[in-house]
Design goal:
Elements (H helix, E strand, L loop, with lengths): L8 E3 L11 H15 L3 E4 L4 E2 L10 E3 L19 H13 L3 E6 L3 E2 L4 E11 L2 E5 L4 E8 L19 E7 L4 E7 L21 E3 L4 H18 L3 E4 L9 H13 L4 E4 L6 H10 L5 E3 L1 H11 L15 H4 L4 E4 L20 H9 L5 E5 H5 L12 H10 L5 E4 L5 E6 L10 E6 L4 E6 L8 E4 L8 E2 L5 E6 L3 E7 H8 L1
Parallel strand pairs: 1-2, 1-17, 2-5, 5-13, 13-14, 14-15, 15-16, 16-17
Antiparallel strand pairs: 3-4, 6-12, 7-8, 7-9, 7-11, 10-11, 10-12, 18-19, 19-20, 20-25, 21-24, 22-23, 22-25
Helix pairs in contact: 1-2, 3-4, 8-10, 10-11
């Protein structure tokens, strides 16, 4: 990247944060610290009232107009705090030159205020295209009137006409996937289970113009209330691929803001992600889920993963300009539905890979930066230094040395516009090793040291700017100019 400051996003939460309503305050306090570390953007958790009130992580969405302001679902505050504290945190982060991205969860609603009788048929669990019952009356939680908010900000209320299905019949006290009579699942969604429009709760009918108009109104209101800089879009594989083409384009035009966006399409294969990018008009970036799974396989393979293929079949290979890379997140951490947590020993390797290369926008997981006390998981060793190294050293031409199944490396030549930039990275998922690599003639005679301290011996580059760089087994070493080392560790 040629920009002076490399873009680096922090996912600003993990699943098991304390349910004390203090997280917005904590992030406001950390704003300057995060900026100094090299964080340029932060993805905040869903800020609106969930069905669990202060206990809700935010994905069981009840009222998107209540961002910690009304006494609903047993509390005024959300798990993270009040509206006033949320807006203060946004301002504090932006004052520290950190862009703020809001988590947007549109696909489903939970915690309805009342039941409605709806005619619906039951779908087969393994194929949503097959109905296994005739249409019959069920009692569905589909009526959302928000009595605790009393029509403030919006008098729009939800009813069964705004949804196409639910997963609970309150009359029979029965779970299942119920498609409302006269409705169809959207066709341009992920094809898992035949059709993966339905995920959970009361599923929005994205063919209903009243729904589209309400989501448009809410988006405009939310931008005006919060002044955020962009979005993280939840579960887009379950929503019409064309919806965000409409929604983001309209908001960007009306607001005059760039509104950076990254979407979650959970699939270990790159092809469906590329299909989504094309169908949605490239209006958003996507998380590189296939790369996460490559990291997971490598960390679980006992040194038998071919590190030369670490980026094979990923979004950074096929659509690098739209890839947001990550190691883990709130869904992959222990105890969650998509648990696929990268093993501790491999985390520094994975973070060096996403932070110090020239493709993809890296997203750091809060639980990796600060630990996960719920599971006695410690912060990833050396992660703050790797983030700083990205900002100070990771510039210029990248030369890859992916010529060994266990030991791989690359160099960055640096930029004249960034003093003390340039680096050499070497990692191994097996035995210790070494690799002769060239940073560039402009670095001839310079002394490079291992930022992570895994190798104590300095490397003096020869007249061609090359050196023999060493790495321990199952480890990574990041060699930077000695002046940059002093900048990073101070």
């Amino acid at each position: 990247m040629s920009k002076k400051t490399n873009m680096t996003i922090l996912q600003g939460f993990e699943w098991y944060l304390p349910e004390d309503g203090n997280h917005w305050n904590l992030l406001a306090e950390k704003a300057k610290e995060l900026h100094k570390m090299g964080i340029t953007g932060i993805w905040l958790p869903p800020a609106y009232k969930g069905t669990g009130g202060i206990h809700d992580v935010g994905y069981g969405v009840y009222d998107m107009y209540d961002i910690g302001e009304f006494n609903q679902k047993g509390s005024i505050a959300t798990k993270y705090g009040t509206k006033e504290e949320y807006l203060h945190a946004i301002k504090a982060l932006q004052a520290a030159q950190i862009k703020v991205y809001a988590d947007i969860v549109f696909n489903h609603r939970m915690g309805a205020d009342d039941l409605e009788e709806v005619s619906a048929c039951l779908d087969a669990g393994d194929n949503r295209n097959n109905q296994i019952s005739d249409a019959h009356p069920i009692l569905a939680w589909t009526k959302y009137t928000f009595p605790g908010r009393g029509g403030i900000y919006s008098d729009f209320t939800w009813n069964s006409s705004h949804f196409d299905g639910v997963d609970w019949d309150d009359r029979e006290k029965r779970n299942g996937v119920f498609l409302f009579e006269g409705k169809n699942w959207e066709s341009d969604v992920d094809k898992e289970l035949g059709n993966y429009d339905y995920l959970m709760g009361a599923d929005l009918d994205m063919t209903n113009q009243e729904v589209i108009d309400e989501l448009d109104r809410w988006g405009k209101w939310y931008l005006e209330q919060t002044n955020i800089d962009g979005f993280r879009l939840d579960a887009v594989k379950h929503i019409s691929f064309r919806f965000y083409l409409h929604w983001l384009t309209k908001l960007r035009k009306e607001s005059g803001k760039e509104l950076f966006s990254v979407a979650e399409y959970w699939n270990p294969e790159a092809a469906p992600l590329c299909e989504y990018l094309d169908a949605s008009g490239h209006v958003t970036n996507l998380f590189d889920v296939p790369l996460h799974f490559n990291f997971y396989k490598a960390s679980s393979s006992g040194g038998n993963f071919d590190m030369r293929t670490i980026s094979s079949g990923t979004l950074i290979d096929s659509r690098p300009d739209y890839a947001v890379t990550f190691v883990d997140n709130h869904d992959t951490q222990p105890g969650q539905a998509l648990e696929s947590f990268i093993q501790t020993w491999f985390k520094p390797l994975a973070y060096a890979f996403i932070l110090l290369r020239n493709t993809g926008i890296p997203c750091i997981f809060y639980g990796d930066l600060y630990g996960i006390p719920h599971d006695n998981i410690q912060p990833v060793k050396g992660l703050p230094e790797l983030i700083k190294a990205r900002n100070i050293c990771a510039y210029g031409t990248q030369t890859d040395y992916f010529d060994h199944e266990n030991v791989i490396g690359w160099t960055r030549s640096g930029s004249s516009a960034m003093p003390n930039s340039g680096m050499a990275v070497i990692m191994s998922d097996g035995a210790s090793g070494n690799k002769y690599m060239c940073v560039g003639a402009e670095h001839a005679g310079e002394t490079f040291v291992d930022l992570l301290g895994n190798h104590q011996e300095p490397i003096v580059l020869n007249e061609a700017g090359c050196g023999d760089f060493k790495v321990n087994g199952g480890s990574v070493s990041v060699y930077v100019p000695i002046a940059a080392y002093s900048q990073i560790i101070k």
